[in-house]
Amino acid sequence: QVQLVESGGGLAQAGGSLRLSCAASGGTFSSYTMAWVRQAPGSERDFVAHITWGCGSTDYADSVKGRFTISRDNTENTVYLQMNSLKPEDTAVYYCAAKHLLNGGSDHYVSSYYYWGQGTQVTVSS
Questions:
Q1: Positive or negative CA dihedral for 42, 65, 60, 12?
Q2: Which of 27, 52, 90, 110 is deepest in the core (most CB within 10 A)?
Q3: Which of 85, 99, 94, 87 lies closest to 31, judged by CA?
Q4: Which helix (H) or strand (E) holds 71?
């Protein structure tokens, strides 16, 4: 059973940085696409970034392009989200999500992801 455990959230000032980690277990992750998704209070979950584990290709939501970087460590089975130039509107619960490459659906669609972590809170003060 795939398990995802996020860490690294917290409080940051606008303009600051945080790095989120997602420790993955229970699967052969070279066959997965991993994503970060966030949910602000009163809002739906929104796609932030994804990485295809095997080839390392990435893509980002327009709102975070140039500020956030998704990466993975094959030896540690961990996915990271480096967040720079944080803005108050980045405040949200950030979730790590995974889907097998054989599963359908766009990598940008939150509903395409089958496995989810418990989430980690990121709060950015102005």
A1: negative
A2: 90
A3: 99
A4: strand 68-73
